[in-house]
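Lecture notes, continued. The same structure-token format from the folding unit now serves as the input rather than the output. Read the line below as a description of shape only.
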């Protein structure tokens, strides 16, 4: 298939491009390189520099004719979305509407959308399945849920078939080492742990040690980006073949605490990784993990790389190539 990957130079997008190429697709990347990086591009894929906020850019891209697209061009920092919702309105929501309208105008009827566990808000039960009520606690999560609703309407009204993939905590790097662009200003646990291991940060702050979990720190469901990437390939095949849309959770189903993650990182890096327990971070749920039974049944998805050791080791391999953020050795 001819596939357009919007946001294909980003952290998750570049892994999606790799998986799409491996599946034999003819891939074009559309990216404004705001957080994506040239170094994440694969020479086997074509590249269009463009911005989803500009309808003309998106229209010109879709005019090239695609059978399917994957949409990952979005801002994703939860805290920032609460402080600067306008950015998220314009980029995530208006940008997606530009994308959907252009896709429809040019006959691209298969859309794989990068959604998030953030659509659920505080869990009412775990593991979280797809029927769990959606009640986002952040503006970021709200944008993802709204887009899922737009997709459902475009399915009804325009015949768009979509797969909304609700990622849990994406982590890890390409196990073959081909993708090695570090995210700028990372906000998530594993990159922060790696920055401490690399000596770029003095210590890790562990947010809360009095949660009702096995060691008092929060439990999350970390899933390897290569596994997420494979799910996009499977989901695109599913919606195109069955002419039916799909919304699925993508998690490893293994709950891991912050302390467990840090312990594995100490073992694998051989570094001390100083850590201090500080107060809870507002909005953090005690335990959040998925059941991916639906993804298993529908798109035949099974994570291969989402054990903590592979998550940490694949990430550490990339960090070891850098002497400072943005500066390779
Ligand atoms: C993981 C755990 C922290 C940093 C976020 C979004 C979610 C999704 C994934 C996109 C938590 C703890 C972290 C630190 C810490 N994003 N932590 N010290 O909050 O589970 O999920 O990213 O769709 O929507 O909310 O991820 O990586 O920030 O935190 O103790 O310096 O690590 O409290 O328990 P989170 P995270």
């Amino acid at each position: 298939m001819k596939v357009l990957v919007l946001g294909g130079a980003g952290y998750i997008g570049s892994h999606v491009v790799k998986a799409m190429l491996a599946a034999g697709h003819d891939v074009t990347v559309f990216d404004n390189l705001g957080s994506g990086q040239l170094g994440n591009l694969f020479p086997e894929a074509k590249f269009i520099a463009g911005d989803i906020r500009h309808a003309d850019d998106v229209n010109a891209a879709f005019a090239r004719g695609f059978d399917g697209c994957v949409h990952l061009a979005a801002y994703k920092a939860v805290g920032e979305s609460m402080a600067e919702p306008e950015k998220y309105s314009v980029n995530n929501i208006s940008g997606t509407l530009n994308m959907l309208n252009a896709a429809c105008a040019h006959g691209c009827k298969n859309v794989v959308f990068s959604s998030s566990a953030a659509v659920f808000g505080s869990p009412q039960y775990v593991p979280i399945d797809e029927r769990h009520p959606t009640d986002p606690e952040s503006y970021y999560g709200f944008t993802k849920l709204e887009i899922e609703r737009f997709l459902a309407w475009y399915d009804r009204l325009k015949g768009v078939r979509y797969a909304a993939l609700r990622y849990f905590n994406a982590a890890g790097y390409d196990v073959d080492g081909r993708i090695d662009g570090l995210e700028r200003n990372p906000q998530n646990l594993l990159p922060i742990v790696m920055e401490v291991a690399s000596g770029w940060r003095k210590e890790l702050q562990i947010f809360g040690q009095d949660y009702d979990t096995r060691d008092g720190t929060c439990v999350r469901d970390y899933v390897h980006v290569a596994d997420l990437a494979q799910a996009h390939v499977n989901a695109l095949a599913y919606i195109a073949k069955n002419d039916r849309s799909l919304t699925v959770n993508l998690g490893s189903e293994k709950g891991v605490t912050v302390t467990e993650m840090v312990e594995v990182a100490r073992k694998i890096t051989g570094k001390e990784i100083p850590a201090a327990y500080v107060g809870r971070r507002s909005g953090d749920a005690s335990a959040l993990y998925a059941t991916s039974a639906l993804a298993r049944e529908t798109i035949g998805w099974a994570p291969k790389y989402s054990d903590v050791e592979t998550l940490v080791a694949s990430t550490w391999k990339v960090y070891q190539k850098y002497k400072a953020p943005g500066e390779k050795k």
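Point for the exam: The longest helix spans residues 85-105.
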